[in-house]
Design brief:
Elements (H helix, E strand, L loop, with lengths): L2 E6 L5 E4 L6 E3 L26 H10 L3 E4 L23 E3 L4 E3 L5 H11 L2 E5 L7 H12 L5 H8 L10 E4 L14 H18 L4 E4 L12 H10 L5 E8 L6 H5 L1 H22 L7 E9 L14 E2 L10 H16 L4 E7 L8 E3 L5 E3 L3 H10 L3 E3 L7 E4 L3 E4 L1 E7 L6 E7 L6 E6 L4 E9 L19 E2 L4 E3 L2 E6 L3 E9 L2
Parallel strand pairs: 1-21, 3-4, 3-13, 4-7, 6-12, 7-8, 8-9, 9-10, 10-11, 11-13
Antiparallel strand pairs: 2-16, 5-6, 14-15, 16-19, 17-18, 19-20, 20-26, 21-25, 22-23, 22-26, 24-25
Helix pairs in contact: 3-4, 3-5, 5-6, 6-8, 8-9, 9-10
The structure holds alpha-L-arabinofuranose (AHR).
Length: about 500
């Protein structure tokens, strides 16, 4: 039986401008994200730098604006110096995070060259696990100082004349996690992050810095970690990080489909925590949120780092995504946009092969996973100002989060063209929903696409890469200022409205 819902799109209900940095991704030295993912010298489609041009093209099509590098857990035992200079002189190392052998053929300068070709902003993570302030400063000098000092001249001797001028830096990764090399208490990390931030801002006060928040909202110190870290760093950092992975594998599909509501709660909780610290410190600054790892991850299929045998770029967590996963990814993007006034950076983890929208085979093809599509369409069409959209709709009962709204939506408005784009998910697994949209006068639909399938477990594969693609929606009607459409069960839809000629 169809349910019904309604919402209003009004350009005066503004939340905040769409921040391009919300469409970030993540390239970690993990599994096959770098090697045989973005970088595969000898591949028939590799360019002169060894970058796979098929992956570069897909990255551009995905609409990624920013890429976090080089980890992740990897960064916490990484020596950036190993990855620069003549390739034949670079050492092989043990990566303890993923029990992998790291040959270092790809490092900082290769990443920056790749990022320039992909047209993305680099977001660099520093090792504050096994290393500290001195090494962070050395990396920033190597990367960002024009020349005339030992490390900037070293970069120039490596063939990179102009500084990379990286603006966005993560002060470590997930240091609250006992799995992290150099794991710390909030007190230890807060001090180290503060001293590193102080030194980096002395180097360049306009750098944007991200302090590590909790690894996930289930950590025993969730909330108190952020409070203690921000008390130590508040005046020196710009963002606090959030990470969340949603696992479909426990069979509770209703809760899984409500992941966007959980992400929303997490964002509000950390924003409130940050504001509480700001109030205690009598500060006028507002800390923004960097949701720099988010995605769907079949985490319970991964048996942990200690179960891994030493290997070079092994196949790690190459999850195959289905239609339901894509709907959840679409709803997580909706949540990020709904919180555009607080979330300033977001990175889907990761870009290629490792829980990724882009899959590749070594020596073979690259293809789009199902989750590629809602990301690409959102990144392409979410422009201008995010509008507050509050659907009146039924709820879905979930074991994990209680009653959650069945319809999850956001919209953006481009003042210059008058266009409004609606992004909407029906989380109900059983019922389609008849949606009634009230529009400003003079707008008419120009495009309506939906991602849904008779078989919500359908996936894309190397043999059938376009099994799941967005298809034109049907049955959209306009009557004056009222548009009506039907949202299939478990669906993600985009509807673009533009001024009528
Ligand atoms: O993205 C995979 C891993 O998940 C990252 O290395 C780590 O930061 C997180 O726990």
């Amino acid at each position: 039986m169809a349910t019904s819902a309604r919402l209003t799109l009004d350009p005066s209900f503004r939340i905040a401008p769409v921040e391009p940095r919300l469409f970030g991704s993540f390239v970690e030295h993990m599994g096959r994200c770098v090697y045989t993912g973005v970088f595969e010298p000898g591949h028939p489609l590799a360019d002169a730098d060894g970058f796979r041009t098929d992956v570069l093209e897909l990255t551009r099509e995905l609409g990624v604006t920013l890429v976090r590098y080089p980890g992740g857990n990897f960064v916490s035992n990484y020596r950036w110096e190993d990855g620069v200079g003549p390739v034949e002189d670079r050492p092989a190392r043990l990566d303890l995070a993923w029990r992998s052998l790291e040959g270092n053929a790809f490092g900082l300068n290769e990443f920056m060259a790749w990022a320039a070709k992909a047209g993305v902003e680099p977001m660099m993570a520093l090792n504050l696990g096994t290393r500290g302030v001195a090494e962070a400063l050395e990396l920033v000098e190597y990367a960002n100082y024009p020349g005339g000092t030992r490390l900037s001249d070293l970069r120039r001797s490596h063939g990179v004349d102009k500084p990379h001028d990286v603006r966005l830096w993560c002060l470590g990764n997930e240091l609250d996690g006992p799995w992290q090399m150099g794991h710390k208490t909030a007190r230890e990390y807060g001090r180290l992050a503060a001293e590193t931030a102080r030194a980096l801002k002395r180097f360049d006060r306009d750098l944007s810095l991200v302090a590590c928040g909790s690894s996930n909202s289930g950590m025993p110190t969730f909330g108190s970690w952020e409070a203690e870290v921000l008390e130590a760093t508040y005046e020196m950092v710009d963002y606090i990080s959030l990470h969340a992975y949603y696992d479909p594998s426990d069979g509770d599909a209703d809760s899984f489909l409500a992941s966007g509501a959980d992400m929303d709660h997490m964002i509000r909780s950390i924003a409130a925590t940050a504001d509480h610290v700001g109030a205690k410190l009598r500060s006028r600054r507002q800390i923004k949120l960097s949701f720099d790892e988010w995605n769907v991850w079949y985490q319970s299929r991964f048996h942990g780092e200690s179960s891994l045998e030493w290997a070079e770029h092994p196949r790690l967590i190459e999850d195959d995504y289905d239609v339901t996963d894509a709907v959840v990814v679409g709803s997580l993007l909706i949540t990020l946009l709904r919180n555009a006034d607080r979330v300033g950076v977001a990175c889907q983890a990761q870009l290629a092969n490792v829980i990724a929208p882009i899959r590749t085979e070594p020596g073979g093809p690259a293809w789009r996973q199902t989750v590629f599509h809602p990301f690409a369409l959102t990144a392409r069409h979410a422009r201008g100002e995010v509008l507050r959209v509050e659907p009146e709709c039924p709820t879905v009962s979930t074991a994990r989060y209680g009653e959650t709204p069945a319809i999850w939506a956001t919209a953006t408005h481009r003042e210059a063209t008058g266009e409004i784009t609606l992004f909407v998910v029906n989380r109900d697994r059983r019922n389609p929903c008849a949606l009634d949209v009230t529009l400003p006068a003079g707008l008419a639909p120009v495009e309506h696409l939906e991602l849904a399938d008779e078989d919500p477990s359908a996936t894309n594969t190397a043999a059938d890469p376009d099994r799941v693609v967005p298809r034109p929606g049907t049955g959209l009607r306009l009557d004056g200022r009222r548009a009506t459409l039907t949202l299939p069960p478990v669906s993600w839809s985009i509807v673009r409205f533009a001024p009528q000629e």
